Amino acid sequence: MSESKTTKFITAGRDKKWTNGVVNPPVQRASTVVFNSVAEKKHATINRANKTLFYGRRGTHTHFAFQDAMTEIEGGVGCALYPCGTAAISNAILSFVETGDHILMVDTCYEPTRDFCDSIMKKMGVKTTYYDPMIGEGIRKLIQPNTKILFLESPGSITMEVQDVPLMADIAHETDIIVMLDNTWGAGVNFSPFEHGVDISIQAATKYIVGHSDVMLGTAVTHEKYWDQLREQSYLMGQCVSPDDAYLGLRGIRTLDVRLRQHAQNSLEVAKWLATRAEVDHVRHPTLDTCPGSEFFHRDFTGGNGLFSFVLKTTNPKATTAFLDGMQHFSMGYSWGGFESLVLANEPSSFNALRTVANPYFDGTLIRLHIGLESVDDLIDDLRLGFERYNSVIQEHALTQ
Fold it and tell me: Where in the cell is it found (predicted)?
């Protein structure tokens, strides 16, 4: 009997061989695995890559349950685990490139991804070409004979551009280029990577998978063609995670669907309110047509979450500071995906360092919000008071001119 995706969040990874008769797989901590006979040791050695207890770095039943859950949710045949999302990205790339290769990297990628390409990849002799996230069919012109990977992130970090993933994946596959996607925003819930041509789906499970801002964790799920190489190369680079962290990732999955639906409902209400504000130039929420690529969002995604941005009409660092400093329910902090609301500001000049081919050239400050699970009324009141502080500084500045 088939089950809906909503049900799968409850059942995924709960095979009896992992749970041993209880609801949640126990936390199994181990470095050394001991064998009672030569035959047992040989069996474990032969099957060490197939969810068999062999050595702690290969995983325990806790890890195996979490890996099963991720592949059941996202698709594919296997899931590699990493100590954070950045490790998942860098090691997925490292698993498939060698000196002389070429990578196509979306210009709106997560900042540490850019730093990795500009430092480690460059030092290894792997060239990176950054491309406009909205390039679509134009990606064909950037493909070189040595292009190994097309890397996408959709929606993009900070500025939220939604890419035409299926089109670009089809073009990449014409020359057997591996398509990798930072799927953290979709969280395996709202975007099904393998149904849209992705080969390797990467997540900072730190964010929505865990959902409580208390664990660093990364995942990379892939299909049969690339699973053996991703698994073994990541193992050789020493990638492993704590069983306690894997357990918390698994526990987060149980409420992932319901949490995301509430995040999405809250964020859309806040986004629509922000769109009415005189201070706001436009809102970059993927469900709204003011966000680049929103048509692809409506075509390819099944829902939203709490992360979006909005752009102010002006830039005034002193006024932005006043807006941020008095918040009661929004905290300033990196990352997102927990139950709490967060806010960060990006002045227009900051994009000069972050972008090389797709600088959005905002006239005003960009504010990125993560809308948590608090009362929407409380969050809107917090933002309203923030705008009052912001406007007070703007007016004071105007009087002194």
Answer: Cytoplasm
